[in-house]
Amino acid sequence: MTFSDDEIATPATRTVPTNTFIPADDADMKTIAGLVKSAKIALVTTITASGHLHSRPLAAQEIDFDGDLWFFTQDPSSKVEDIRRNNQVNAAFESGKGYLSVAGTASVVHDRDKVDELWTPAVEAWFPEGKDDPTVALIKVTAESAEYWASNEPGVVTAFKIAKAIVTHSQPDVGENKSVDL
Question: What is the per-residue pLDDT for 18?
C-alpha cells in the first residue's frame, strides 16, 4: 500500500543533526503517521532476561498515530515476559516512502473494548478461538522519541541522486532525516 504525497510532510528547509532531538511538530507527526500507515509491519525489539535485544515482526494496528502504537500478541509469550521485565522497546518500520524508528515504553493490555475496537479478520488468523481466546492481549507502545528518513520522490529519482553523488563525490539529498521527541 502506498500513500499520497500529502501524507508525508515535505522536507524542512533547515537541516537538523540526527543526534539532536527536537520536539515533534504537526508536520513530524503527519510524517510519522504516514510511515506507520504505509509500512504496516514493525520489527518490535525487546530486551530479554539476559540483556540481549530480540526483534519480532508485528502488525501495527490501523489507527491514526497519536503517539501510541498498538499490536496484538499472545499472553503468555516470550515478548510479553520481556516487556514485563523491561518495558523499553523499539519499533522499526520500512516502507517505500522511508524508514522510521520509534523508541518508547511498552505495556501489556487486557482491555476487551480495545480488542473489539482493533479486531480485524486478519487478526483472527492468529487467534483461532477469536476475540474470546484467553491468550488475546495487546501491546501498547507509548512513543518517547522517533527518528525518520522520509522521501516523497520515486525510487528512480532517489537511485539517480545516489548515482550522481557517486560520480561527483558528494553526498546525495535523498529526503529528510529528523530525530524528534514525542
Answer: 52
The stretches of 90-170 forming alpha helices (DSSP H) are: 112-118, 121-124, 155-168
User: Taking the chain, what is the end-to-end CA distance rounded to the nearest angstrom?
Assistant: 26
pTM for the complete prediction?
0.84
Residues 6+ apart with CB under 8 A from 177: 16, 18, 147, 148, 149
| Architecture of the CATH domain 5-181 | Roll (2.30)
Measured CA distances, 38 to 25, 88, 103 (Å): 20, 24, 19
Whether the ω angle into residue 76 lies within 30 degrees of 0, i.e. cis, is yes
The residue assigned the cell 543533526 is: 17
List the domain boundaries for the chain: 5-181
pLDDT tens by residue, 59-94:
999 888 999 999 999 999 999 999 999 999 999 999
Sign of CA dihedral 34, 37, 38, 42: positive
- The 8-class DSSP code of residue 154 comes to -
Picking from 43, 141, 49, the residue whose alpha carbon sits closest to that of residue 86 is 49
Cell of 119: 479486531
